[in-house]
């Protein structure tokens, strides 16, 4: 990451051409540079003004809306300006080339605007991650989860925990340092352990919701498994309503995992078509079956598809959540093996039978797995790991009744440090670089 003292610029809007393109500039020279580009006096702070933009030789470039956000009341916490241009490739390219010609002004790196907001105390790390998730949100539930994090609602939960720990540590320090003073009652620290126990209970409750947050953010994975020609590829195509997988009568057509996505009631669902499970000596198919078994074992849900006309014994599935789904129901009842009671659902990909019911059942299952009272839940592994570590230190302090009070106080300090790392108040440069590299340039 280049020096944070530089003035930076970037195209912050979407792909070109577009109706409007937004170029953002942030840093100590931002307002001065905008004055050099535009005719007339700049508009008041946070008020859009229509101005003509000029090239270095004074010739007309474009007519644009310009806004000025003096620091610290800006997104980055420093002087920041926005230029709303016509979104043609020629206009934007010429403007970016013009900006690159100013001394001390350079193109922003990925995530650098957001990193400056973090460095200047405008956002904490949880809010930054929520903002990143908001920019990448595909579904309504992903949007809602990201809003909870980016707006600081989850950070306020963490901060409340940290303040309780600070108070507990203060009480212990008072007993350790001033026990001989008349106005410091003895064993004052005994009064705070019930509060610490309650805090631990709150943390454990939030940790239980981590999987829900993970599913909402990353999606719910559903593997389609079964023997060759059980109808996996046909069902995948029917659910997503387009030809994603090749469908033939030849057993073993699907050799690799095929992925498609569904939006079910605002939840992202990942569908995976896998190779047919059977014994084979064909090298490529065996590798496909190996990959299929790995994905099946890791999926949130497995749909075990069974051809209702197939007399072959179904293969066992290695997953704790498996639904048996009978396929090809349109012509199955000529077969004596077809019995609706053996299956979660009966479907026909060609006729569309049972597909609406399958979508409804999948949506209900995702909602059941993500049922939480609030979306202020950890959605990233990093967040969960910090809470797990903090909870472990609290548990050590609570259970260590035979330990010296100084050691129990140290456990509380370490727990507080974990919560501080969670919001990014103290952290490593490597972690910060990883998080901000996930942003696009211009944000």
Automatic annotation (TrEMBL):
<keyword id="KW-0819">tRNA processing</keyword>
<dbReference type="InterPro" id="IPR025867">
    <property type="entry name" value="MnmE_helical"/>
</dbReference>
<feature type="binding site">
    <location>
        <position position="233"/>
    </location>
    <ligand>
        <name>Mg(2+)</name>
    </ligand>
</feature>
<feature type="binding site">
    <location>
        <position position="253"/>
    </location>
    <ligand>
        <name>K(+)</name>
    </ligand>
</feature>
<feature type="binding site">
    <location>
        <position position="254"/>
    </location>
    <ligand>
        <name>Mg(2+)</name>
    </ligand>
</feature>
<keyword id="KW-0963">Cytoplasm</keyword>
<keyword id="KW-0547">Nucleotide-binding</keyword>
<keyword id="KW-0342">GTP-binding</keyword>
<feature type="domain" description="TrmE-type G">
    <location>
        <begin position="219"/>
        <end position="367"/>
    </location>
</feature>
<keyword id="KW-0479">Metal-binding</keyword>
<feature type="binding site">
    <location>
        <position position="122"/>
    </location>
    <ligand>
        <name>(6S)-5-formyl-5,6,7,8-tetrahydrofolate</name>
    </ligand>
</feature>
<feature type="binding site">
    <location>
        <begin position="273"/>
        <end position="276"/>
    </location>
    <ligand>
        <name>GTP</name>
    </ligand>
</feature>
<feature type="binding site">
    <location>
        <position position="24"/>
    </location>
    <ligand>
        <name>(6S)-5-formyl-5,6,7,8-tetrahydrofolate</name>
    </ligand>
</feature>
<comment type="subunit">
    <text>Homodimer. Heterotetramer of two MnmE and two MnmG subunits.</text>
</comment>
<dbReference type="Pfam" id="PF10396">
    <property type="entry name" value="TrmE_N"/>
</dbReference>
<feature type="binding site">
    <location>
        <begin position="248"/>
        <end position="254"/>
    </location>
    <ligand>
        <name>GTP</name>
    </ligand>
</feature>
<feature type="binding site">
    <location>
        <begin position="229"/>
        <end position="234"/>
    </location>
    <ligand>
        <name>GTP</name>
    </ligand>
</feature>
<dbReference type="InterPro" id="IPR018948">
    <property type="entry name" value="GTP-bd_TrmE_N"/>
</dbReference>
<dbReference type="InterPro" id="IPR004520">
    <property type="entry name" value="GTPase_MnmE"/>
</dbReference>
<dbReference type="Pfam" id="PF12631">
    <property type="entry name" value="MnmE_helical"/>
</dbReference>
<dbReference type="InterPro" id="IPR005225">
    <property type="entry name" value="Small_GTP-bd"/>
</dbReference>
<feature type="binding site">
    <location>
        <position position="248"/>
    </location>
    <ligand>
        <name>K(+)</name>
    </ligand>
</feature>
<keyword id="KW-0378">Hydrolase</keyword>
<dbReference type="InterPro" id="IPR027417">
    <property type="entry name" value="P-loop_NTPase"/>
</dbReference>
<feature type="binding site">
    <location>
        <position position="250"/>
    </location>
    <ligand>
        <name>K(+)</name>
    </ligand>
</feature>
<keyword id="KW-0630">Potassium</keyword>
<dbReference type="Pfam" id="PF01926">
    <property type="entry name" value="MMR_HSR1"/>
</dbReference>
<dbReference type="InterPro" id="IPR027368">
    <property type="entry name" value="MnmE_dom2"/>
</dbReference>
<feature type="binding site">
    <location>
        <position position="229"/>
    </location>
    <ligand>
        <name>K(+)</name>
    </ligand>
</feature>
<keyword id="KW-0460">Magnesium</keyword>
<feature type="binding site">
    <location>
        <position position="82"/>
    </location>
    <ligand>
        <name>(6S)-5-formyl-5,6,7,8-tetrahydrofolate</name>
    </ligand>
</feature>
<dbReference type="InterPro" id="IPR031168">
    <property type="entry name" value="G_TrmE"/>
</dbReference>
<dbReference type="InterPro" id="IPR006073">
    <property type="entry name" value="GTP-bd"/>
</dbReference>
<feature type="binding site">
    <location>
        <position position="443"/>
    </location>
    <ligand>
        <name>(6S)-5-formyl-5,6,7,8-tetrahydrofolate</name>
    </ligand>
</feature>
<dbReference type="InterPro" id="IPR027266">
    <property type="entry name" value="TrmE/GcvT-like"/>
</dbReference>
<comment type="similarity">
    <text>Belongs to the TRAFAC class TrmE-Era-EngA-EngB-Septin-like GTPase superfamily. TrmE GTPase family.</text>
</comment>
<comment type="function">
    <text>Exhibits a very high intrinsic GTPase hydrolysis rate. Involved in the addition of a carboxymethylaminomethyl (cmnm) group at the wobble position (U34) of certain tRNAs, forming tRNA-cmnm(5)s(2)U34.</text>
</comment>
<protein>
    <recommendedName>
        <fullName>tRNA modification GTPase MnmE</fullName>
        <ecNumber>3.6.-.-</ecNumber>
    </recommendedName>
</protein>
């Amino acid at each position: 990451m280049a020096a944070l003292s530089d003035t930076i610029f970037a195209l912050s809007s979407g792909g070109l051409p577009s109706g409007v393109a937004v170029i953002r500039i942030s840093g100590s020279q931002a307002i001065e540079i905008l004055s050099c580009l535009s005719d007339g006096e700049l508009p008041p702070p946070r008020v859009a003004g229509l101005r003509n933009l000029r090239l270095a030789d004074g010739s007309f470039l474009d007519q644009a809306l310009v806004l000025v956000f003096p620091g610290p009341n800006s997104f980055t916490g420093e002087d920041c300006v926005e230029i709303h241009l016509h979104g043609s490739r020629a206009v934007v390219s010429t403007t970016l080339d013009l900006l690159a010609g100013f001394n001390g002004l350079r193109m922003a790196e990925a995530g650098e605007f957001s990193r400056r907001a973090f460095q200047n105390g405008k956002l904490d790390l949880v809010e930054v991650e929520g903002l990143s998730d908001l920019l990448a949100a595909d579904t309504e539930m992903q949007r809602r989860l990201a809003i909870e994090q980016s707006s600081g609602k989850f950070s306020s939960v963490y901060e409340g925990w940290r303040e309780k720990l600070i108070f507990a540590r203060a009480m212990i320090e008072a007993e350790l340092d001033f026990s001989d003073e008349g106005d410091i009652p003895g064993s004052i620290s005994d009064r705070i352990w019930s509060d610490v126990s309650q805090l631990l209970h709150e943390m454990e409750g939030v940790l239980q919701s981590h999987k829900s947050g993970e599913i909402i953010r990353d999606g719910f994975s559903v593997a389609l498994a079964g023997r060759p020609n059980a109808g996996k590829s046909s069902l995948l195509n029917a659910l997503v309503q387009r030809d994603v997988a090749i469908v033939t009568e030849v057993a073993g057509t699907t050799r690799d995992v095929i992925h498609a996505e569904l939006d079910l009631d605002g939840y992202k669902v990942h569908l995976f078509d896998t190779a047919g499970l059977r014994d084979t000596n064909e090298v490529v198919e065996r590798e496909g079956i190996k990959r299929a078994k790995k994905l099946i074992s890791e999926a949130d849900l497995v749909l075990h598809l069974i051809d209702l006309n197939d007399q072959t014994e179904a293969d066992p599935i290695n997953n704790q959540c498996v639904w048996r789904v009978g396929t090809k129901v349109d012509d199955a009842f000529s077969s004596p093996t077809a019995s609706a009671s053996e299956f979660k659902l009966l479907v026909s990909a060609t006729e569309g039978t049972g597909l609406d019911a399958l979508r409804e059942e999948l949506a209900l299952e995702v909602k059941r797995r993500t049922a939480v009272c609030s979306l202020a839940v950890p959605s990233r592994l990093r967040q969960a790991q910090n809470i797990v570590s903090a909870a472990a230190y609290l548990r050590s302090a609570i259970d260590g009744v035979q330990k010296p009070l100084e050691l129990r106080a140290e456990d509380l300090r370490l727990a507080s440090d974990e919560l501080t790392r969670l919001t990014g108040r103290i952290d490593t440069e490597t972690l910060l670089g990883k998080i901000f590299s996930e942003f696009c340039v211009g944000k």
